[in-house]
Design the sequence.
């Protein structure tokens, strides 16, 4: 009698993703061990992080790995990565306008470049080069300005002309007869894309293995403050005491801060994006047009991802609208007319918490122990690692790291704005 191979192989859950284990799983159909270790919600943690997106999970990761702090709960009202972290276009770059912004986002790029090794998880970082097109003199002037600021901060960025752009993106209409002729572009070779859900799950897997509790479907409904200090949060699953509470949310960040009595200059707008059917790779670079309010990249699977600037009116809608997507697709065709036959598969919207100066708000608040990592507008995903690293340091040492000091809440009352409008997503 031929005995089945599976009887010799154990069907115990597979915990490690080695080649042998993957083969064993394929033969035996043994269950995979859950990536997130399930836990009861405890009545107390040293640190509560509200928001299970890339910012909250990165903060938990660096708290554990850089500071040995693991008595931490990450709470999300839905599933991890269900907010802005799963609803962006996964573009990475550091070619900002202010020296403080360039330094900050460049540290994030460095952490992203090493993230696969750090998390032992393939986050599919792809360095593609990033082009921001200029269709008029005003735009070209901003690109030159950004290039000079970038170079002074050691960031690879330069203004290139139409001939160079054509070499980088052969399908682009760089002729002077184009609907919006291209005068030049800011070229940023280190820019690229990454797989956003891999980043979320890579961080989640690491923090869960280190003993951090991740609680999904756990909605914060109140924040307790006594004598000017935060004392805990109230959730749909019970109350949790904590000496430190971090607001790492997007979309609802002003609502959460209000629960602690902290007002923030944040308004929430949807940003719509769409993806096409997959086609053979032809677009290496990430292409942005500030004047047309559009950006395009091609994923490793071959889909084209299109994004726009935020909707012209505030709302909490996370659905794409046909009218808006038609306009967006029209602008893509003005840049690359040969894409006309591509079909769109789906569209969506992410919520962007916009601040008056197009920069985030990070650090302490007037309520002791209540910290914020919010106001991420259209630039949150690319900053997840550096924000997590800096916020973890703030929690662990009680001192605001120099890299986030310019982005404090007090800047709005002290007249120290960090104007990034000219470099934010499709800024001009
Ligand atoms: O800042 O690169 C960016 C961006 C792309 C999409 C939204 N923001």
Sequence:
């Amino acid at each position: 009698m031929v005995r089945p191979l599976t009887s010799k192989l154990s069907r115990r859950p597979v915990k490690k993703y080695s080649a042998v284990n993957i083969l064993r799983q394929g033969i035996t159909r043994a269950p995979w061990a859950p990536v997130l270790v399930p836990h009861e919600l405890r009545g107390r943690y040293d640190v509560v992080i509200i928001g299970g997106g890339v910012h909250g999970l990165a903060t938990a990761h660096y708290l554990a790995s850089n500071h040995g702090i693991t008595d931490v709960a990450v709470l999300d009202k839905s599933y991890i990565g269900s907010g802005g972290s799963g609803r962006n276009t996964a573009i990475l770059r550091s070619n900002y306008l202010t020296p403080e912004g360039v330094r900050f986002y460049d540290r994030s790029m460095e952490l992203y470049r090493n993230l696969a090794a750090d998390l032992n998880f393939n986050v599919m970082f792809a360095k593609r080069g990033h082009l921001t097109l200029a269709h008029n003199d005003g735009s070209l002037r901003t690109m030159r300005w950004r290039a000079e600021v970038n170079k002074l901060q050691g960031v690879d960025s330069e203004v290139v002309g139409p001939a160079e752009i054509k070499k980088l993106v052969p399908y682009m209409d760089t002729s002077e007869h184009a609907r919006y002729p291209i005068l030049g572009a800011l070229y940023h070779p280190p820019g690229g894309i990454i797989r956003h859900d891999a980043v979320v799950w890579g961080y989640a897997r690491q923090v869960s293995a280190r003993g951090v509790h991740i609680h999904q479907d756990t909605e914060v409904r109140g924040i307790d403050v006594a004598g000017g200090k935060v004392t805990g949060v109230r959730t749909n699953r019970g109350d949790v005491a904590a000496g430190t509470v971090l607001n790492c949310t997007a979309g609802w960040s002003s609502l959460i801060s209000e629960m602690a009595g902290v007002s923030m200059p944040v308004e929430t707008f949807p940003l719509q994006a769409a993806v096409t059917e997959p086609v053979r790779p032809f677009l290496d670079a990430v292409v942005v047009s500030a004047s047309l309010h559009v950006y395009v990249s091609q994923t490793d699977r071959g889909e084209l991802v299109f994004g726009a600037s935020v909707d012209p009116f505030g709302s909490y809608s996370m659905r794409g609208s046909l009218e808006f997507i038609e306009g967006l697709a029209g602008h893509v065709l003005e840049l690359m007319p040969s894409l006309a036959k591509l079909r769109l598969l789906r569209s969506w919207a992410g919520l962007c918490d916009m601040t008056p100066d197009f920069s985030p708000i990070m650090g302490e608040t007037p309520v002791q122990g209540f910290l914020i990592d919010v106001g991420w507008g259209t630039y949150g995903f690319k900053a997840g690692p550096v924000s997590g690293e800096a916020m973890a340091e703030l929690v662990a040492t009680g001192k605001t790291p120099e890299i986030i000091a310019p982005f404090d809440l007090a800047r709005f009352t002290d007249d120290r704005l960090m104007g990034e409008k000219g470099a934010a997503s499709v800024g001009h």
